[in-house]
Design a protein that fits this description.
alpha/beta; 2-enoyl-CoA Hydratase, Chain A, domain 1; 3 domains; eight-stranded mixed beta sheet; seven-stranded mixed beta sheet
Amino acid sequence: MKQIIHELESRREKAKLGGGKARIEAQHARGKLTARERVELLLDANSFEEFDMFVEHRNTDFDTDKNRFPGDGVVTGWGTINGRMVYVFAKDFTVLGGSTSEWHAQKICKIQDMAMQNGAPCIGLFDSGGARIQEGVGSLAAYGEVFKRNVLASGVVPQLCAGGDVYSPAMTDFIFMVRDTSYMFITGPDVVKTVTHEDVTPEQLGGAKVHSTKSSVADGAYDNDVICLEEMRRLYDFLPLNNRDKAPTWPTQDDPRREEMSLDTLIPENPNKPYDMKELILKVADEGDFFEIGENFAKNIITGFGRIEGSTVGFVANQPMVLAGVLDNDASRKAARFVRFCDCFNIPLVTFVDVPGFLPGISQEHNGIIKHGAKLLFAFTEATVPKVTVITRKAYGGAYDVMASKHMRADVNYAWPSAQIAVMGAKGAVEIIFRNERGNPDAIAERTKEYEDRFLNPFVAASRGYIDDVIRPHSTRWRIARSLRMLKNKQVAQIWKKHDNIPL
């Protein structure tokens, strides 16, 4: 028995060393943590229980049998984050570059299956050179098994990932990257140069900055592994464990009746002057705690998580500081995906509206603004979670409909006294309606004033029941909190269908 115990401990120590001390030191020299160090930082202290520590690949082609390591390049198991269960796998770059093999993937698939069966989120920490090419189709089949489970788990349990790889992270709910060390691309710089004759660095092709600002593949980019993992822990606290779980509730000392008198002067007198919508979100959310998703992409719309009375809500808001808060292709896609995630996982939606319309232009039209705008309309309409909307200023044209209007099945719709709900702004409307009077400046000025008095206020919409109440800005937090209380047992009867067909 002593001999077996000694061998067990010896094997454990070998497995924990991954590819060996030299490769661990090389990993640290690149500014990167090892797989085990990442898991240790992500999870609560001493909560990780590892599975399949002793698994080794069984391939023999190209003398690969001479290069075997316990664990086969991925650390898998489960633990807790702030006491809540989570399954995790972390690819170990010190072992064969963290490359995917048949046995490596089997370990990941086991964790994915357990996450779905037991109703807990799955987090993947990626640091990999790709497929283990010595295995040929075996490694491709291995990838396919992981991808399949990403699809099956979608909408069942939250899926988060950090690091590289490509298709598997792309099917998860949230992706985080580390600046200067994380890369994601289908084909690397060498292949790009061969095929297209373009010289590009890994960072320029698929670095954290590119994917968090241009492609929208990544939801956040951070300076190092430690900050990235800390932010993943923070995000995890906002998420339910699965699609049958309620959004988590955390203790709060923030009075839901708290009034913010400064909000009464948030909207500038000049209707064309911008203001920061994040100020409203921070003053409404508990303790001003807001976790933004996609902060550096499509900045004209804001998406992220906060809490009201301790319970998670998803915030969607136009940002007048960027492009006047207009909806464009990128903003529509970004917000639609966020709305659909919240609906999957029972997270109520709070929408703040100040939108002058959709962005006009040849580029927007040619790149599908009709279909991309429809994605957000579709997402808000199909969502059955509680939906509370507040119009702070402009709500013009089709963008008014799209931004969680009463017509898109929003439950409670408020407007501030400064709200302007109309087909378009007064100047544009008058130039169309009274085009025959364009040569008479006095008449145009009079018509403009008439249009403003008649339509650029919330009362026409309120008179038709499209706005449930016109509220004072300082009372916004309490009115939202009360509405969410009222809606907490909301149920929606659905017409049976296999699934919808959102305009992708």
